[in-house]
Amino acid sequence: MKVFRAAITLSLALLLALPLAAQKAAQQKERLVFTPQWTAQAQFAGYYAALEKGFYAQEGLDVVIEHPNASRSAIDRVRRNQSHITTLPVTQAIEALDHGVKLVNILQTSMNSSLMIVSRRGANPLSQKGATVSCFRAGYSQLAKCMAQDKNLQYQWIESAGMLNLFIPGAVDASLAMSYNEYLQFLQTGIIDRNPNIVFRFRDNGYNIQEDGLYMTREEYEKNPERARKFARASMKGWEWVAEHPDEAMEIVMKHVRRNHIATNPIIQRLMLEEILDLMEDYETGLREYELREDMFNQAVLFLMRGGIIKNQHTIKELRP
């Protein structure tokens, strides 16, 4: 009987200790705030998957995903130490460097440019000299402005937070668009079709510059390089999982979309995910390389300097860990 009681006592002690052990383990995880550069959508599916499938937790990280809002952009949050990590296109990272913001690229997800100019008038965008063209307020417009200057298109740029608001009523002659986002929305409205003659694709016309990558300030990175490597490793695992499980990944994406009250639909998000995964692959090898390419970086610097967007010559070493 004494042996039995001792066994019961030991079992109870172990059961009581389990929640405490779990709590202690949770407390030991390193907290990281990650802010993607835009609202919740399939563009960030790999990070949602890494969170939901426990890949960050497996690396000992307690990751919180906080999307930006109208009053504070993702890069501003990182600069003010309100977030540890963000996503940025390469051109915006270079522009930040030129303004004295020291950044480190810890993982490159995009391999190709998704940027497009779509005509509202059924014409070749390059034939629309002097056209009014809606553009993004930040992030992806720099490369388009450099291209237009190279080709002396004399576009009149109209900054907008919502491209559809100008494109649908024909308030502009053309619009910038991402192949995984605005272009799909334009198609869904039925205003345009997949006529290749009304689209200028940057990736196919000598302006193929990588876009999204993961960035930290150098100061934050140097506090704990291993923490950055853990986040990058888990994020890459998340993207690989998404590529292998697109249906389940879509459920996770829509969960985050609903949680953030984003007006969209599963059809657009599924098309977006397919396009994002395609853009992540090198067109020659078909591989997802997850590396910032020096040739594309140097080309981006050249375009931005020629377009007057930046003043200084930068090297890829400035973004290397």
Calculate Rg over CA atoms: 23 Å
The rounded distance between the terminal residues' Cα atoms is: 63 Å
Could you please say which CATH topology of the largest domain applies here? D-Maltodextrin-Binding Protein, domain 2
Shape call: globular
Instruction: Return the domain count.
Output: 2
Under the CATH scheme, the architecture of the largest domain is 3-Layer(aba) Sandwich
Spell the H/E element sequence. Answer: HEHHEHEHEEEHEHEHEEHHHHH
Number of helices: 13
Structural class: alpha/beta
SSE inventory with pairings:
Elements (H helix, E strand, L loop, with lengths): L1 H27 L1 E6 L9 H8 L2 H4 L2 E5 L8 H6 L5 E5 H9 L4 E6 L6 E5 L12 E4 L5 H10 L5 E4 L3 H5 L6 E5 L3 H8 L9 E3 L10 E6 H6 L1 H20 L1 H14 L6 H14 L14 H13 L15
Parallel strand pairs: 1-2, 1-3, 6-7, 6-8
Antiparallel strand pairs: 3-10, 4-10, 5-8, 5-9
Helix pairs in contact: 2-10, 2-11, 5-13, 6-13, 11-12
Structural notes for this entry:
This protein is an alpha/beta fold and 321 residues long. The chain is built from 13 helices and 10 strands. The chain has helices spanning 2-28, 45-52, 55-58, 74-79, 90-98, 141-150, 163-167, 182-189, 218-223, 225-244, 246-259, 266-279, 294-306; strands at residues 30-35, 61-65, 85-89, 103-108, 115-119, 132-135, 156-159, 174-178, 199-201, 212-217. The strands form 2 sheets. It has a 5-stranded mixed β-sheet with strand order 2-1-3-10-4. It is globular and about 60 Å long. The model is unreliable at 1-16 and 20-26 (pLDDT under 50).
